[in-house]
Amino acid sequence: MIQRQQTIWWFLIGVFAVLMLFFDWMTLFVTDGNNYTISSSGILKDGATVIDGTMLTVYLIVEAVFNFAIIFLYKKRILQSRLTIISIVLSLGTYGLVALYRYMFISEAVTDTNFNWPLVLPLISTILGIMAYRHVLMDEAKVRSLDRLR
Question: pTM value?
Answer without folding.
Answer: 0.86
